Task: inverse folding
């Protein structure tokens, strides 16, 4: 009887754990990623109040998402107001690709951001591009969420 | 593949796996007391004859084609075995081949002679002698192995060679990387840069001890040239942006690489003598990881012009571009075999990474090894073995990362960890240093 009760409790605990972990996983995938593009703010820093420093990309892609374009428009506005500032766009890839291809992909991503800033009036003289490929992840995890944070172009003040 | 001497009874079939490695006895090289003392004072080794034979033994074992027998079972003393082996004794311990030899201190040099015997036929297969400076003693072991390997397999060896690679340390997010070089067996490891800047993808010149690699010196990723002997370095070409993915042409006179500009990577060459730069590809996609065929007439490379990473070949002037990879998944890092008939590659399919080979027309794809992450195969100079690097999966806290070098036989057998003092990636195999 007593054993039965213990077993029952054990089962309850197991079920509770399962429910919790299911919640956690769900939050991870739907809360911080859209498709496989990172939408969270964990790693984001700010160039100025309300001006995020980075945009994120889908696997193997360099297309700017709606959210990325919004971020870059904020950056362009900030750069227009602060015309003495020059920037480096640092392009990155996740660890799930060959090193050399990722160097090229990082360069392509940073240039996608550069092109967009230029269409909003920022002179190419103020922008340089630096690809790190997969060499400088922000999140060292080997999971889809970590990889989504690492596929990015980061705008860094150069002066 | 057929040994040149018709009388020889033993030969090793290297076209198959290592299912039946050839039993071979490597007798310690005999040495006289006087030479033993001299070498001990110079090299701090108790018995240089035994040490050299251990190198031969380890090399042969690592190849996967030979099974060096336990020395405790040897019945004949090294000096007598070298004069005239008693074949019944060696037959008794199931040795099919026997290596004997003698090492001597002579005019401040190390003189070695060695013999390879066919135990079953009771015949000498090869006898060679050479002289070198004592500090080269490890290379003596490698050269003996190369000769034995060549005599028994009919193909050149790959033991008197070096590996250049990137030594890694520190957390994944702030990894410190240095160029490093070591003998093929991991000995004589040496760092060539200090780790102040990020360095990637070193590759040997097939005709000299020059290396080309990517360095982020002053945060400008550029292809560099390094002379290992003198330590002299220089930037390759004057490009207004990132150059990367360098390799030498087979004659060592050109560097082929990618140059990235405005989101587009193209392949260029630079002639090292007259500094003339030529643009080879012209396409608004990523074109990178170029590698020449051994005759220099063709180039294989990586491009995403079809939408995703695939392998292409073209003539060395950039014409006749043809896609050759058509299997499921993405393909990268093509590298042409020194024998000319195969291209090794990295493949990504359904979240797994593979090292594989295919014929130069893309047919006959064979995947040699599967893992969470691995890439960048580099061929041994005889085209029998591939060295590559493999990274481990981290846990959700980002812990447990490591990067190591591995080698695998072209047959897909004999996968081995290549021991390095630190974590390691981006290996490149040198040509044979001797012969």
Result:
């Amino acid at each position: 009887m007593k054993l039965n009760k213990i077993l029952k409790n054990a089962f309850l605990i197991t079920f509770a754990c399962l429910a919790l972990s299911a919640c956690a996983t769900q939050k991870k995938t739907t809360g911080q990623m859209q498709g496989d593009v990172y939408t969270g703010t964990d790693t984001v820093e700010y160039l100025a109040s309300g001006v995020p420093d980075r945009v994120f990309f889908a696997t193997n892609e360099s297309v700017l998402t709606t959210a990325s374009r919004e971020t870059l428009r904020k950056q362009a506005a900030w750069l227009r107001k602060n015309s003495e500032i020059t920037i480096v766009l640092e392009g990155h890839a996740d660890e799930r690709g060959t090193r050399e291809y990722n160097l090229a992909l990082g360069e392509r991503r940073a240039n996608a951001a550069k092109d967009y800033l230029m269409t909003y009036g920022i002179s190419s003289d103020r922008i340089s591009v630096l690809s790190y490929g997969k060499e400088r992840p922000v999140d060292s995890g080997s999971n889809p969420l970590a990889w989504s944070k690492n596929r990015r172009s980061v705008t860094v003040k150069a002066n | 593949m057929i040994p040149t001497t018709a009388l020889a009874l033993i030969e090793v079939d290297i076209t198959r796996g290592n299912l039946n490695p050839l039993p071979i006895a490597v007798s310690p090289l005999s040495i006289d007391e006087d030479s033993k003392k001299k070498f001990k004072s110079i090299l701090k080794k108790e018995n240089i004859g035994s040490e050299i034979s251990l190198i031969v033994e380890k090399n042969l074992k690592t190849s996967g084609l030979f099974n060096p027998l336990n020395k405790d079972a040897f019945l004949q003393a090294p000096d007598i075995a070298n004069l005239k082996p008693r074949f019944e004794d060696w037959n008794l311990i199931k040795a099919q081949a026997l290596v004997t030899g003698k090492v001597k201190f002579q005019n401040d040099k190390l003189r070695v002679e060695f013999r390879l015997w066919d135990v079953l036929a009771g015949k000498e297969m090869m006898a060679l002698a050479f002289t070198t400076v004592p500090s080269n003693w490890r290379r003596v072991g490698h050269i003996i192995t190369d000769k034995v390997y060549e005599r028994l397999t009919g193909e050149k060896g790959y033991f008197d060679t070096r590996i250049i690679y990137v030594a890694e340390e520190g957390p994944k997010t702030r990894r410190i990387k240095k160029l490093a070089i070591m003998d093929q067996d991991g000995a004589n490891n040496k760092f060539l840069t200090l780790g102040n800047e990020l360095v990637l993808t070193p590759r040997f010149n097939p005709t000299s001890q020059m290396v080309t690699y990517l360095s982020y010196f002053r945060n400008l990723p550029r292809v560099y040239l390094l002379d290992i002997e003198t330590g002299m370095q220089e930037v390759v070409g004057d490009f207004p942006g990132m150059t990367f993915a360098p390799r030498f042409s087979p004659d060592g006179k050109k560097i082929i690489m990618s140059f990235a500009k405005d989101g587009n990577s193209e392949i260029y060459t630079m002639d090292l003598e007259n500094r003339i730069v030529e643009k080879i590809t012209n396409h608004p996609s990523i074109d990178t990881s170029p590698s020449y065929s051994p005759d220099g007439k063709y180039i294989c490379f990586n491009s995403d012009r079809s939408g995703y990473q695939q392998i292409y070949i073209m003539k060395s002037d950039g014409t006749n571009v043809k896609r050759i990879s058509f299997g499921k998944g993405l393909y990268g890092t093509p590298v042409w075999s020194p024998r000319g008939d195969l291209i090794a590659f990295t493949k990504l399919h359904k979240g797994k990474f593979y090292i594989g080979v295919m014929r130069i027309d893309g047919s006959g794809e064979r995947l040699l090894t599967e893992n969470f992450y691995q890439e960048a195969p580099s061929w041994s100079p005889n085209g029998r073995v591939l060295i590559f690097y493999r990274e481990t999966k981290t846990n959700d806290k980002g812990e447990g990362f490591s990067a190591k070098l591995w080698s695998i036989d072209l047959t897909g057998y004999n996968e081995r960890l290549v021991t390095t003092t630190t974590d390691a990636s981006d290996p490149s195999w040198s040509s044979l240093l001797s012969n």
